[in-house]
Amino acid sequence: MTATLRILPFLSWRRRPWRLVERNVLAYRRIWYIFLSGFAEPLLFLLSIGVGVGKLVGDLHVGGHLVEYRTFVAPGLLAIAAMNGSLLDTTFNFFVKMKYSHTYDGVLASPLTPRDVAVGEITWALLRGAAYSAAFLLTMLAFGDLRSWWSLLALPGAVLIGFGFAGVGLAATTFMRSFVDFDYVNMAMIPLFLFSATFFPLARYPAGLQAVIRFTPLYQGVVLERSFVIGDLHWTLLANAAYLVAMGVIGLRIASRRIGLLLQP
Amino acid sequence: MSGPMVAARALTKRFGAFVAVDGVDFEIEPGEAFGFLGPNGAGKTSTMRMIGCVSPRTAGELHVLGLDPAHDGPDIRARLGVVPQEDNLDTELTVWDNLMIYGRYFDLPRAEIRERAAELLEFVNLSDRRDSRVDPLSGGMKRRLTIARSLLNRPELLLLDEPTTGLDPQARHLLWDRLYQLKRSGVTLVLTTHYMDEAEQLCDRLVIMDNARIVAEGSPRRLIADNVTREVVEVRLPIEADLDFEAARLKRFGDRIEPLADRVLLYTDDGDATAAAIMSEGFEAGSVLVRRASLEDVFLILTGRSLED
Which of B13, B45, B46, B54 best probes binding to A when mutated, by most A CB atoms within 10 angstroms? Predict the structure, then answer.
């Protein structure tokens, strides 16, 4: 019971990690407007790709449902936004606080532990990501792109995508030496962004590539969101979800250990 | 609490092959101001970080407030105040918010933090800067804010790592004054410093560290009495002087002499008589100075090096 709760930061009954969330609320209170870009970005994508490109592409089949291209691409954009949002907080922002502002040096002199820092920052990233995802889902609702009541699972799904990438992002950042290393993050993100069956169906990829894509992380999230929104559920979704949970849990473990090694030598 | 606030036995810290702290023993009693004195790299900060439960020990025993840092880190830290060598205030927050959030890290209720924060800002003379950001504050102000922050949880043990390094004399005296007040109120102070005057002013008892080891322990007065004569005569030499030659010449005047780069120290129980004798030898009066022996001399005698080197 304890073990299960510990690996799920957003269900954690422990209070200490939440202090980091409070800290971030205080820090961003004065610069709340930077959150606007997080709301605007997926919306602009939806308008340009979903509506604009969608007019040229026409309808397509997803799991036996004939849907407009906009309806097809919107859940992909939702998954991308969830990935981008959580990576911003757990890579770049986390790196600055750890290496340059020495924010955590002060934090760790208090009762908080390296693990509290890791869980706290991931929780913050997920809350922020959830707000963006919720706004985007409302836009999809307005466009009529939520085709099923299973869409209620799309928000938890987005949080799960965020958790997976937040764990991995935080862990990876503890290995970074300077800002130059962030190029690796971009190098990983751009192909995921373009080729995770986000903009066109998996069936359109060459067979060999399809097998590879099935095992990439963002693909798991895209499949989840698209299935929820269109109402095309099957048991294999549990495997997609498990993949993301594993990413988050393993990442969190590594990050907690590494933060301890780096900041409490 | 009846036992010591901090007890270390054969406490050791290694970073790979490098030995930062090499089997030190010490005990810090409740209510005392205890100092770690030594040059940079002596192992003071590593020792402080182990006491502060932010650095695991490599070997030996350590108890802080009767608990073991290896298992009870959060519980110990909840009762400590820490002023680190490098200010690590939260630069994304204002002065006031720095205190508010730090109190939250200690799980204090907000109303309580507000009350204490206002008091503490008053205590460190920063009430008029409460809405300022941290970056524009001067070094002395940041230090004072860090001290205010370290006191939010009403610590039983306050750890100060080189609290006045880099501050101007005025800021130092203000800080010392505040530390006196804390000591009087019963807080146990542990501080590191490489300033002799700071150690003499603030510490009831101290250890001198050099090369990862403790080389002497006692009250400042005891250390001086045990290791040095009562007075010291300093003879400044002109740049062109042959140091070895002059040292040999001066040798017979003191119980012991210590040649430095630009001067020779003579340890003696009667400074004025020694100075008079030296001047009668033809040394210029302006270059001969009599002073009381200090901790600096203790360090010099025990290690053969000046602290400032």
Answer: B54
Domain extent at residue A209: 38-263
Provide the domain limits for residue B141.
Answer: 6-224
Q: Provide the CATH number for the domain around residue B256.
A: 3.30.70
Please answer yes or no on whether B101 and A22 come within 8 Å at the CB atom: yes
Distance CA B171, CA B230 (A): 31
Neighbours of B267 (CB within 10 A): 22
B306 pLDDT band, cuts 50/70/90, is low
Q: Hey, are the CB atoms on A111 and B90 less than 8 Å from each other?
A: no
Cβ neighbors of B45 (< 8 A, separation 6 or more) are B85, B161, B162, B192
Give contacts of A27 with chain B, Cβ < 8 Å: 90, 92-93
Q: Which of B75, B82, B100 sits opposite A109 (nearest CB)?
A: B82
**Probe site for chain B from A15, A18, A20, A23 (most B CB atoms < 10 A):** A23
Identify the three-state secondary structure at position A113: coil
The DSSP output letter for B205 is E
The answer to whether the Cβ–Cβ distance between B88 and A103 falls below 8 Å is yes
pLDDT value of position A40: 87
Query: Chain A: residue nearest B52 by CA?
Result: A109
* Cα separation, A101 vs A92, whole angstroms: 12
Domain count, chain A: 1
Q: Are strands B188-193 and B33-37 parallel, antiparallel or unpaired?
A: parallel
Q: Could you give the angle at which helices A217-230 and A182-194 cross, rounded to 10 degrees?
A: 40
Q: Which residues pair with B267 in a beta bridge?
A: B232, B256
Average pLDDT of span A227-238: 92
Where is the domain boundary, B198, B224, B250? B224
Question: What are A26-37's pLDDT values in tens digits?
Answer: 999 888 888 888
* Yes or no, beta carbons of B77 and A264 under 8 Å apart: no
